[in-house]
Design brief:
Radius of gyration: 21 Å
Strand content: 5-15%
Structural class: alpha+beta
Number of strands: 5
Shape: elongated
């Protein structure tokens, strides 16, 4: 199934309006420093309050939120970002939505190809679970320990066949084994959707991404609900809490290493604290 990354039937700029409304709804008057008057029907900022904080007219903000203006200046977008107290990832996302690249015809994308040097590096890290991911979280390659950690129930050669490649987000929402693998699945799911929402603004006309989001929205009400929140976050590092069926609980630190160039490919690695039970678990998994 194919879907649009924007509201069905509407121009791409409505993504900007939807994001602005979602951040306005999420910002309380107290946090924004606005003194409330009268009874409020919603917990967030009123449109008039945001316009005043950003120094723009209510009419102009209304046009932005309704997708009727496609030429917002950097100064206006910066003022809105400050008024909404956006973090760096949200600010980058807002600018990407406000100044999208020219629309291109959607064509069937060629399958991504794992960079040879990245594949070689991946397999040289025999003691570290690692994956090579494409720009939309397709698994282009994994080393033996990365496969055993995350998807031992799948064919280890699947990433080498484009038509059968696992996709991390598809697995997270649609594969029971992957859901059970995460001890805090809800947080993991929210983070994954925030990340793909960030990426979507960088590739607004990509057919593969549109199909991926369409499939997940159709088959997972949880994904659809999270997608509608318009939260964005670029994932670069953190800790993931697993419950592996073979070796039990593992607390692993992850790092995302973006490869040079505009391909969007990146290495994802997992490590454990020295002398920890998680490190012992990884070593046990390696002997499986």
């Amino acid at each position: 199934m194919e879907t649009s990354l924007r509201r069905p039937g509407g121009p791409r700029v409505t993504e900007l309006g939807e994001f602005l409304r979602s951040r306005r709804d999420a910002l309380s008057p107290e946090t924004a420093g606005v003194r409330g008057y009268g009874r409020r029907r919603v917990p967030g900022l009123r449109r008039e309050e945001l316009a005043q904080l950003a120094g723009v007219s209510v009419t102009y903000l209304t046009r932005l939120e309704q997708g009727q203006s496609q030429n917002a200046s950097d100064a206006v977008i910066d003022a809105l970002a400050r008024a909404l107290q956006l973090d760096p990832d949200e600010r980058t996302h807002l600018f990407a939505l406000a100044h999208p690249a020219p629309t291109k015809p959607r064509r069937a994308a060629r399958p991504e190809v794992a960079r040879p040097g990245a594949r070689q590096l991946l397999h040289s890290m025999a003691d570290t679970p690692a994956l090579l991911l494409g720009r939309f979280n397709d698994v282009l390659a994994w080393n033996r320990l990365g496969h055993l950690l995350l998807a031992g129930h799948l064919d280890p050669e699947a990433p080498s066949r484009p038509a059968e490649r696992p996709n991390q987000i598809q697995l997270l929402f649609l594969d029971p084994h992957t859901r059970e693998l995460h001890r805090d699945w809800a947080s993991e799911a929210a983070l994954a959707v925030s990340s793909i929402r960030y990426v979507a603004a960088q590739f607004p006309d990509d057919r593969r991404l549109a199909e991926l989001i369409g499939e997940l929205s159709l088959n997972s009400p949880e994904f659809a609900s999270l997608w509608a929140r318009h939260t964005v976050k670029l994932c670069t590092s953190g800790t993931k809490r697993f419950h592996h069926p073979e070796v039990g609980d593992l607390d692993l630190d992850y790092e995302v290493l973006h490869l040079p160039g505009a391909s969007g490919q990146r290495l994802l690695t997992y490590t454990a604290e020295p002398d920890s039970a998680s490190l012992a678990g990884l070593r046990l998994l390696a002997t499986t």
